């Protein structure tokens, strides 16, 4: 009698103890499998993003943050204001000309350089100098500075080679300069960089024009 009363008082107890059907078990298994696939997919996305971010950082470090040495070149557009040369028998020269010095900056930040002296030489002997004023070459651009130079043969101890050149109708001058400055990256990083110019200019005497310009 007591057992019957207990069964009537808790009619759902026996129902809850009934085992789950195959359909319910299959649904739970399917949900678990779906969650597992989602977790795997999320892990793949996170890993792919991490790899992508690493590649971006490497490319950024190898390109943007890599500091290259700027290049300094003497321009080929030379305008002569004064052009006097002697003969093979009495060799000499006295020239005045205007040209441009180009400072090429390939970096992703400006290159600020100090004032310096460009020296013109004939066979290693200084025959003239010109000042390159301080300036700034913008990121991935070329700064052109106009200069006027006066060169003459007064300092030459020997003019034998000069006589041979003038006899051939040419005059060869070498120009050298060294710029000292800093490359600025991301407005915070500054790195010192020196740029050197070494150009050889061949002038054709008869036409009073630059025949060739070779820079190293």
From TrEMBL:
Pfam families: LEA_2 (PF03168). Residues 1-30 are annotated as: Disordered. Keywords: Membrane, Transmembrane, Transmembrane helix. The chain crosses the membrane at residues 42-65. Residues 101-200 form the Late embryogenesis abundant protein LEA-2 subgroup domain. This is Late embryogenesis abundant protein LEA-2 subgroup domain-containing protein. It comes from Castanea mollissima.
């Amino acid at each position: 009698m007591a057992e019957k009363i207990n069964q009537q008082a808790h009619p759902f107890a026996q129902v809850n103890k009934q085992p789950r059907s195959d359909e319910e078990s299959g649904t739970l298994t399917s949900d678990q499998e779906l969650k597992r696939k989602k977790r795997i997919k999320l892990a793949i996305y996170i890993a792919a993003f991490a790899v992508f971010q690493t590649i971006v950082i490497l490319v950024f470090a190898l390109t943007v943050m890599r500091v290259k040495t700027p290049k300094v070149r003497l321009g080929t557009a030379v305008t002569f204001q004064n052009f006097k040369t002697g003969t093979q028998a009495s060799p000499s020269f006295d020239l005045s000309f205007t040209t441009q010095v180009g400072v090429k900056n390939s970096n992703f930040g400006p290159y600020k350089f100090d004032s310096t002296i460009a020296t013109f030489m004939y066979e290693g002997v200084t025959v003239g100098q010109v000042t390159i004023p301080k300036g700034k070459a913008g990121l991935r651009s070329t700064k052109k500075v106009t200069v006027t130079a006066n060169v003459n043969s007064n300092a030459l101890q020997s003019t034998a080679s000069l006589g041979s050149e003038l006899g051939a109708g040419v005059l060869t001058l070498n120009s050298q300069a060294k710029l000292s400055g800093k490359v600025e990256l991301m407005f915070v990083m500054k790195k010192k960089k020196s740029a050197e110019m070494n150009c050889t200019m061949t002038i054709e005497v008869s036409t009073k024009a630059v025949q060739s310009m070779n820079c190293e």
